[in-house]
Design a protein that fits this description.
Blueprint lengths: L2 H10 L4 E5 L3 H15 L2 E6 L3 E4 L5 E3 L5 H13 L4 E6 L10 H15 L6 E7 L12 E5 L5 H14 L11 H6 L5 H15 L7 H14 L3 E4 L12 H9 L6 H6 L6 E6 L5 H12 L3 E4 L11 H15 L3 E5 L2 H5 L2 H7 L3 H15 L4 E7 L7 H4 L6 E5 L4 H14 L9 H10 L5 H17 L6 H9 L4 H4 L1 H11 L4 E2 L34
Parallel strand pairs: 1-6, 1-7, 2-5, 5-6, 9-12, 9-13, 10-11, 11-12, 13-14
Antiparallel strand pairs: 2-3, 3-4, 8-10
Bound molecules: adenosine-5'-triphosphate.
């Protein structure tokens, strides 16, 4: 059911007040006007600059109704004379915050009168860019989210742009791909993207898709917490992680129509846990490119901020963009960063972190749009247990340090990527380097290759094995200082996560394994959590 139909249903069902959260003023107006027409109500619109206007039939201003209290007096007269009214209050949210007790209590009285059937066939719709709802009204107001423009809306906007700029018909080719490129933009952003493409190229065809996509990247970046990526890595760029790669490969076709017809559910997502630099982000990028889906990166840290309610709104907006762009991959890098306030959030941030997490988890559980989530985390100790619970994501993978054969593969990948230099060494030489670099992460192995190249370049000669082995010797890998963390994580993941590599992990020097049953602080003493020895 589309948004307009849902709104109509709410109005028909007698909802006294509806709040629509959206920046899309024009589409909200159009939806309200359509609904009023459908249910036979008069449609009035109020905003701070124009006051109250009747928009049905001959549109005309209602003189003398400007302030909030005047609106309610006017509405109560309409209600008494049994008129049918749909009243749209635009950007009314500043009147819903603390300090506007009179307005809040008038709205509350309106809801009570509607519940007692003293008032019927009157509906107040509040449209605003952020959700603001005082606790007094929480039970009386239906909150609705207006989705971003769909293909049908974009088609109208595209035609409008062509008319405005008097584009000759031969310079305009309306194609599904062109429209799809604009998905994820709001009305005004799409208008601007089309106008810019026309102004720059004098046409609007599939050749302008890169321009629209570039505009979209900018807009999405500007939204503060999302980044649009053009994935460039592929599965072949990942060394090791065979189990993860196999798992992803099996789900490759899961977003296709055939899979849906076959009765498969679109995969929800994966959580990748592991040390920094072990290839988790690389895997997120490779999934998007292997599945040929757009990749969006959500920065959890930047979701927070601003006035009350804004963090939840930032999260909602990001998820709504992802849904509009679906099928897509939503990559949440270092998810624990945004949630580290969890334990204390009740007291320190007024519960914002908990609410943001709550709305994210609900979305994750209930989403019906094909958005595949790849969440990565370095520190399991900071992750809320709710996220780790089975069923939230399809699988939790633990990405351990690469074992010898994986290090060999990673070294080859990075040497190959730099002028095919893997061919300059024998298998035995590369194996020796892999043995020497025990405990190195993929990122550190990449650094070894880069450092080796610097050394050979500054000496003005070809890369030699000694350049790489010297670079290995000069590196102190992260694992050297993180024995405790690696050991505890390895213990913790047993039975809780799948290892991303099928090879058994290498024991590191100084890594004692006698401690059993590691428990995270946030798990407390929950006796139902199994720990394995
Ligand atoms: P962080 O949490 O710090 O982002 P990460 O686990 O996400 O760490 P990546 O950002 O994916 O690690 O790794 C950094 C770089 O190291 C990658 O871009 C890649 O070049 C290299 N790398 C890491 N792991 C691998 C691997 N398994 N195969 C090939 N290259 C790797």
């Amino acid at each position: 059911m589309d948004f307009r139909d849902q709104l109509k249903l709410n109005v028909k069902a007698g909802a006294p007040m509806i709040q629509i959260v959206s920046h899309e003023t024009l589409r909200v107006r159009a939806a309200c006007s359509w609904v009023a027409d459908q249910v036979g109500y008069d449609f009035y619109r109020w905003n701070r600059t124009r006051g109250l206007t009747l928009c049905s039939g001959d549109s005309r201003p209602e003189e003398g109704v400007e302030q909030a209290h005047e609106i309610f007096e006017w509405l109560s007269e309409k209600a008494q004379s049994r008129e049918k009214v749909l009243l749209l209050l635009e950007d009314f949210h500043p009147d819903l915050v603390d300090g506007h007790l009179e307005t809040i209590s008038r709205l509350r009285n309106f809801a009570i009168s509607a519940a007692m059937r003293d008032i019927s066939h009157c509906c107040i719709v509040m449209s605003q860019p952020v959700q603001v709802l005082p606790p007094e009204l929480e039970k009386d107001v239906q909150v609705m989210q207006m989705p971003l423009p769909g293909l049908k809306d974009l088609k109208m906007l595209m035609r409008q742009a062509c008319q405005t700029f008097e584009l000759p018909e031969r310079e305009y080719h309306e194609s599904p791909r062109l429209l799809e490129a604009a998905l994820g933009l709001s009305t005004s952003e799409a208008q601007l993207a089309f106008a810019r493409a026309i102004a720059e190229k004098g046409r609007l065809t599939e050749s302008e898709i890169p321009l629209i996509v570039a505009q979209k990247e900018q807009v999405i970046r500007k939204s503060g917490n999302l980044e649009y990526f053009q994935p460039s890595s592929s599965m072949e760029d990942i060394g090791g992680l065979d189990r993860l790669k196999e798992w992803l490969e099996r789900r490759k076709a899961a977003f296709t129509e055939e899979a849906r017809d076959y009765g498969l559910e679109a995969p929800r997502g994966v959580l990748l846990l592991g040390l920094p630099g072990t290839g988790k982000s690389l895997a997120a990028k490779a999934v998007a490119s292997a599945w040929q889906l757009p990749l969006l990166r959500l920065d959890m840290g930047r979701v927070y901020g601003g006035i009350v309610g804004q963090s939840e709104d930032n999260m909602r907006r990001a998820l709504s963009i992802a849904e509009t762009l679906s099928p897509c991959v939503l990559w949440i890098d270092e998810i624990e960063k945004g949630l580290s306030g969890m334990q204390s959030s009740g007291s320190t941030d007024g519960g914002t972190t908990a609410r943001v997490l709550g709305s994210f988890l609900t979305w994750l559980q209930e989403k019906d749009k094909p958005v595949f989530v790849v969440a990565t985390a370095n520190h399991i100790a900071q992750l809320p247990p709710e996220l780790l619970r089975k069923g939230r994501v399809d699988e939790i993978f633990f990405v351990d340090l690469p074992v010898e054969v994986d290090r060999l593969e990673i070294l080859k990948i990075h040497l190959r990527a730099r002028g095919g230099r893997d061919q300059a060494f024998s298998e035995a030489e590369l194996l020796e380097l892999a043995k020497q670099s025990k405990g190195f992460t993929g990122a550190e192995l990449e650094e070894v290759v880069k450092e080796g190249l610097f050394r050979s370049f500054s000496d003005g000669r070809a890369l030699a094995k000694s350049d790489l082995s010297d670079a290995i010797a000069a590196t102190s890998p992260l694992s050297q200082t993180m024995h405790e963390l690696i050991r505890d994580t390895r213990e913790w993941v047993k039975g809780r996560a799948v290892t991303a590599s099928s090879a058994p992990p290498e024991t590191l020097e100084g890594l004692r394994s006698e401690r059993k049953g590691i428990r995270l602080p946030q798990e407390g003493e929950n006796p139902f959590l199994e720990t394995q020895g």
